[in-house]
Amino acid sequence: MQALQEKDYPHTWLFAAFWTIIIIISLSWNIARQKNEIIEVATNEAKTIFEKDLFYYRWGTSHNGVYVPLTEKTQPNPYLDHLPESSGTTSTGQTLTLVNPEYMIRQVYEMSTGSNSALGHITSLDPIREENAADSWESEALAAFEKGETQISSVEVIDGQPYLRLMRPMMTESGCLKCHEQQGYALGDIRGGISVAVPMSLLFSIYRRDIVLLTLAHVPLWLLGLAGIFISSRRITQAIRKREAAETKTRSIINNMLDGLITMNANGIIESLNAPACHLFGCDKEETVGKSIASFIQFPGRSTLPAGQEASLRGEIRAMVGAQRELTGFRTDGSAFPIELSLSEMPLDDGTLYIATVRDVTEEKLRKSEALRTGQLAAIGELAAGVAHEINNPINGIINYTQLLLDNADEKYDDTDRDFMARIIKEGERIAVIVGNLLSFARQRDVVEEVSMKDIIEDSVSLLMHQLQKDGIQLSVDLPAELPLIRGNPQQLQQVIINLLTNASYALNQKYPAATPDKRLEIRCRPKTAMGKEYVSTTVTDWGIGIPSEIIDHIFDSLFTTKPPGKGTGLGLSISKGLVRDHQGFLSVESTVGGPTVATVDLPVVTMDEPRELQGSLEDCK
């Protein structure tokens, strides 16, 4: 039983207590019914005795008494001396005495002996004979008769034994006046009552035996019921716990899915969602349940869902069942991101449940964009190689021929001509350097080597210098002659610097469409120490339009851009941050609207124990 107690739910004890109460009520009812039955048996017996005594009394009264021979026990009634016929003799000379009904009934009861004999007598509040005086119980009964009661009965103790006492009133009849007229009674008056007492000892012994039998019958029934309750409860508990374990396991699997899972009704009202879905949309589970799915997902052909038009989603939801669609999701902070939505339906008794699987495809789109960009860069590399081949030969010819002219210049060439020739050679060499830098940038080498940020910045500036000058941007470059070396992929780091310079140029052009001294851009590079490590810190500072505080936390999000269509993809800063992170560095941006915007790239300095680790991380990200 103890083992059951430890496994059962509290409601088991509630059922056990309820069953116990039922058994107690049943036993009590049966005991009370049994007692009522023996009381009813005794009462019926007392009524029978009463009726018998009443018949004897009326028979004696109707004959004005009975003459019986005088014996030792039957002596003349002194209360009948006033009657001339109170005595007489038979024809044989035997002496007789008149016995009135009360005297006759009293002698009959005096003949009864034993503890199981019934008792009875006629009594009154004003008896002629003192022995017929009423006791306390009879006095109360006679008083009740005066108030209209017709019968009084109860179980009382007489001489230490239980008796069922019953008493009914006696009405004054014509035969009664012979002895009681002198007391002032008239016809119909309540003259007294006949009191009968039936012994209950035998009936109570039967009653006690019945109680034992009823108890013996109820106790096994009670135990059998308890056993059934606990066994059933144990089985039910085990079934419930198995179901709960299965539900917990299912819930754990659902909440640990990589994809978000949302259930909704036919109107698109969300009924439940798992933890990844809450994380995906940045929402609270309790607050989200009951909202429309259109609050988080933009369905084809509609931008927002009008209030109270949830039913209009029925068509869109049903049309997407069984299909996999790429849509736009919205977080609670208002930011948008690409998602992949799959819908399935589950028929239920009270309707149809729709199950939506939602996956954030931002990283996937980023990888596709990176792959596309890599392919583009590879194509550019091939194109640059061809361009370099086609341009380098003419440029080298121009430089060489001009150099020959300059070397063989005679008196017919003045200083101005010689200066023009030198300028041609210088500009040709400049073209050759630019073509070389373009080739170097387009050639996506996977080599990780020790490089100087000074070289990377100078190569990046050389590629963008013509456009910067064309836009009228005042460029300031502050690079120390000696900078600690870093380890990384030169092309990837150059891509980061070019992206930062391009973003800075765009911000300056937005604020200053024309050339002005305030349209300035600064590149600064310095060694620094942070968290016990040595870094080369590069800052790109522009005094353009700045970045509002409400969006600065999202500028590194994939596909997030404030530029108009065709001007930006929203991937530049995201890719740049990933590249810097792959180099075990940090990229951060600080800005205020109308103030300077500072992009900082911190890259770790080469140490003896870091190159292999960095090389491994870069190889992992390829």
Description of the molecule:
- With 622 residues, this protein is an alpha+beta fold.
- Among the domains are: 257-360, 2-Layer Sandwich (Beta-Lactamase); 362-444; 463-622, Heat Shock Protein 90.
- 47% of the residues lie in helices and 21% in strands.
- Strand 17 and strand 18 form a beta hairpin.
- Helix 2 (10-62) runs antiparallel to helix 6 (201-255), helix 12 (453-470) runs parallel beside helix 13 (490-511) and helix 13 runs antiparallel to helix 14.
- The model is unreliable at 1-8, 304-311 and 611-622 (pLDDT under 50).
Class per helix and strand makeup = alpha+beta
CATH homologous superfamily name of the domain at 463-622?
Histidine kinase-like ATPase, C-terminal domain
Low-confidence stretches: 1-8, 304-311, 611-622
Number of strands: 20
Stated plainly, the CATH topology of the domain at 463-622 is called: Heat Shock Protein 90
Question: What does the radius of gyration come to?
Answer: 60 Å
Estimated helix fraction: 40-55%
The average pLDDT score comes to 79
Supply the number of helical segments: 15
Coarse shape: rod-shaped
Distance between the termini: 66 Å
- CATH C-level class of the domain at 463-622: Alpha Beta
Taking the sheet with the most strands, its summary is: 6 strands, antiparallel
Strand line-up of the largest beta sheet: 9-8-13-12-11-10
Secondary-structure arrangement, i.e. CATH architecture of the domain at 463-622: 2-Layer Sandwich
Q: How large is the share of residues in beta strands?
A: 15-25%
